[in-house]
Amino acid sequence: MRRIRSVLRFALPPLAACIILSAPQALFAAQQWIKVSSPNFELYTTAGQGKGRDAILHFEQVRNFFLKVGIKDPDVGGRVRIIGFQSAKEYEPYRANKIAFAYYLGGFGRDYIVMQQIDHDTYPVAIHEYVHLLIRHSGIELPVWLDEGLAELYSTLEPYAKKVKVGEMSPGRLEIMNTSKLLDLDTLMKVDHSSPYYNESNQANIFYAQSWALTHMLMLSDAYRPKYPDFVRALTSGLSPAEVFQKIYGKPLGQVQKELEGYTRANSYKVAFFDTQLEKASENPNVQPAPPAETGLVLVDLLF
User: Fold this and answer.
1) At a CB cut-off of 8 Å and minimum separation 6, what does 12 contact?
2) Parallel, antiparallel, or unpaired for β 102-106 and 2-4?
3) Residues whose CB falls within 8 Å of the CB of residue 41, separated by 6 or more in sequence, listed in order
4) Torsion over CA of 244, 247, 250 and 252, rounded to 10 degrees?
5) Averaged pLDDT score across all residues of the chain
6) Phi-psi region of 257 (alpha: psi -120 to 50; beta: other; left: phi over 0)
7) Can you state the percent helix, strand and coil of the chain, rounding each to 5?
8) Burial readout 284-295 (b: 16 or more C-beta within 10 A, e: otherwise)
């Protein structure tokens, strides 16, 4: 669940290009790569036709939901490219860091979502990464904690009767919040993409849990929800987090911290319901074998 902000592209000398291009072909020739294409996504995967087709339709379904609730369709300059492996071993050479089971990569002219596995159990991860894509293309520069918090919050979206529910509490995240020493909010809000709290498993767990919980409280609790839009605008205006909380809510960071701790220990919480349905995607994806040379080029593009 990672967002890699940009990638530098450069021209390789001819000999170097030949050597590098030969490696993925040799490495992946024995695997059955397929390419699945829909109007807005293209998926390269070794997980098989069934999982590949289901996954790309889920991405189309999620994209359609965000369009219906008023999120502008991102101008990505073509199909979003998804790489879906079927095992940790396959994924390992492309892992963003030790704890990333998936990540979003926004580069020049191509957006990637890379996943260790694609199946129904990992669909929340797919939504998480797609939210990163939406945030990047919105033009709003959010701090890392809120970027990850929003991605975690929306990853819970699921159909509920004829609506869509967002904000179900995560038992795993709650357990971390209620059994671990929390970061003070000043530290949380200074975490960037190079921080140990973002990259090392023993510290990232609390960062993700606390980012999710704080975002949940700001967006959905009665005490914070009404002024949440003003909070985001102030947060992107250059003010420090302490100044923003004081200006918008009239609360110092220490008070917000105490309220957050109480929020995750409460017996009740609110979720959001959207007056739309998570409709089954109507697209009929094109499924075909992916030649080794094509797959090799895609993987080299991902690496470089």
Assistant:
1) 20, 304
2) parallel
3) 56, 59, 60, 79, 80, 81, 82
4) 40
5) 87
6) alpha
7) 50, 15, 35
8) ebeeeebebeeb
* Run of H or E including 215: helix 201-220
Tokens encoding 96 = 């963003």
DSSP state for residue 145 in the 8-state scheme: H
H-helix or E-strand spanning residue 301? helix 292-303
CA–CA distance from 158 to each of 58, 117, 128 (Å)?
Answer: 12, 20, 13
Inter-residue contact 282 to 276 (CB < 8 Å): no
Which residue in this structure is represented by tokens 């580069």? 107
CA-CA-CA-CA dihedral for 192, 194, 196, 201, to nearest 10:
100
d(CA 304, CA 291): 20
CB atoms within 10 A of CB 171: 8
Tens digit of each residue's pLDDT (9 = 90 or more) over 215-259: 999 999 999 999 999 999 999 898 999 999 999 999 999 999 999
The identity of residue 205, as a single letter, is N
Tokens of 215: 């975002």
